[in-house]
Amino acid sequence: MTANIKWTEVPIPSAVWAVETDKFVKGYQASLLGGFQAMPSWQKYFKNPTGALLGIYAASFFIPSIFTAFIGDIVSTKMGRRWCIIIANIIITIGCLVNTFATSIGMWCGGRAIIGAGVGMVKVAAPVLIQEIAHPRLRPILGSCYQTFAYIGAFFAALMTFVGLYVPGDWGWRFPSLLQVIGPVAVIVVTFFCPESPRWLIKKGREEEALDVLAKFHANGDREDALVQLEMQQISAAIEREFVQQKSTIVDFLRTPGNRRRLATLVALACSLNWMGNGIITYYLSPILKSVGVTAPVQITLINSGLALWNLVLAGTAAVYCDKVGRRPLFLISVAGMLCSYVVVMALSAGFSNTKHHALGIAVIPFLFIYFGFYDIAFTPLPVAYTVEIMPFSIRSKGMALFTSTATLGNTFNQFVNPIALKAIAWRYYAVYIAILGFYFWFIYFMFPETKRLSAEEASRVFDYDRKGFPLDRMTDDVEQRGVIPDTRSMDLSPR
C-alpha cells in the first residue's frame, strides 16, 4: 500500500517541477533590478535613477498584480489551474520581450508591468495546483519548494548581470533581461502535459478523471488503493460540505470565526513577503552596500550572486525538513533571528555613518547573510504553502487571489517608499523593520496553529477550532457529528 513506501519512492509528476519554476520569474526580476543598479550600462541608458524615480521603476512590476490576481481566480475556477498557468506565462513571455527591447523608460516599465500582470495570475493557480496534485508525503516539501524556486531565478539573474558587466554597449543589460524568457516558455510547454487538479475535477463532476489522476500519481495506477479511495472520499466530502453551506464568494472570509482568523493570518503572511526587511535588501542591495563603502560594480554583483546562492541552499534545506520541525517553531525562530540580525545591521550602519570606519561597513555584509539565513528557514518556503494549507477548497483560489493582491499592494508601497526613505534617513530607516519584526513575533505566537503531518483537508480545518479543540462554528460541529470528513491520521503518511 502506498502509505508504507518511502517518500523518496513516491512518483512525482514531472510537470510539478515545471509549475514550481513559475516562481523563477519573480526571483529573476527581483535580483535583476538589484543587479542593474550596479551596472554602468543600465545606469547610463536610464540616466541614473534614484529615490522616488527608482521606486516607480520597482513598483511598475507589482501594481498590475493587485488586480490580475482576481482575474487569475476567475480563470482558475472556470477553466482550471492548468489553463490559468499557461495563459499567465504567455503574458509573462510577452512582457519579457518588451522589457528586453525597450527603447525608453516608459517601454521598459511597461514590460515589467506586463510581466507583473502575468505573475499575479500565475501565483493564484500554481501553488494551489502543486498542493492539490502532490502525494500526501510530498505535499509539504513541494509546497514549500515553490517559493524557494525564486532563488534559482535570483542566482541566475545575479550571475547574468555579472557577465553583463563585460558585454559592451546596451546589450550589457539587454542580455540578462532576454534570458528571463527561458522560465515562462519552459512552463508553457510542460504544463500542457501536467494533470489537472483532482479537486477541481471533482468539483466539476469529473470524478473518473480525478480518480485516474490520484491513482496514477499516488498509487502507481491502482484505482482501488486504500490511500486513493480515502483521498477521493475526503475531497468529495469536503466539497459536499462546502456546497451545502453556500456558494463561495470573497465575503466568505468574514462569515465565520474560522474564516476571519484565516483572513487575518493570510494578510499577515502576504505582507510578510516583503515587509520584514528583506525587500529593502533584495531590491536595493546596491544602495545599501554603497552606503557602507562598497562601491565597485564587480564587488556588488558578486555579493548579490553569493547572497542568492546562500538563500537557495538555506531555503531548499528548510523546504525539505519543514514538516519534521513544524511550521510554528520555524516561524518563531526565523522572526527572532531576523530581529537580532537587523539590530546589529542598524548598529553597524550607524557606526560607519558616524565614523567612516571601513571595518564597520564591511561587517554589515556577513550580517546581511545571517539575516537572510533566518528569513530563509521559514519565510521563503512557508507563507504560500501555509496559506494554501489553511484554506478550504471552496475559497482556496480566492484566498490565493487575496493573498497575491495583498502581497502585491504591500510590496508596491514598500518598494516605492524604500529608496526614498533610504535616501532621506539612511540607516535610521531600519528601525521601522525592527518594530515590524517585533509585532510579527507576537502575532505568530498567538495566531498560527500547527499543521505539520496533516492531510490537505485536515490542515484546512485547523482554524475552525479553538485552542481546546472545540468547533468555532455550528456547521463545523454538525459535520463532525455526522462524520462527513474522514480522518487520515490513522495512516502513517509521514516521510521515512
TrEMBL record:
Asked if the keyword RNA-binding belongs to this entry, the reply reads no
Q: Per its UniProt record, what SUPFAM superfamilies does this chain match?
A: MFS general substrate transporter
What are the transmembrane regions? 51-71, 83-108, 114-134, 146-167, 173-194, 263-286, 298-322, 329-352, 358-378, 429-448
InterPro entries reported in the protein's UniProt record: MFS_dom, MFS_sugar_transport-like, MFS_Sugar_Transporters, MFS_trans_sf, Sugar/inositol_transpt, Sugar_transporter_CS
Q: How does it sit in the membrane?
A: Multi-pass membrane protein
Gene Ontology molecular function, alphabetical: carbohydrate:proton symporter activity
Cell location? Membrane
Pfam families per the UniProt record, alphabetical: Sugar_tr
- NADP among the record's keywords? no
* Keyword terms of this UniProt record: Membrane, Transmembrane, Transmembrane helix, Transport
Cellular-component GO terms for this entry? membrane
Q: Which family does it belong to?
A: Belongs to the major facilitator superfamily. Sugar transporter (TC 2.A.1.1) family.
- Protein name, per record: Hexose transporter protein
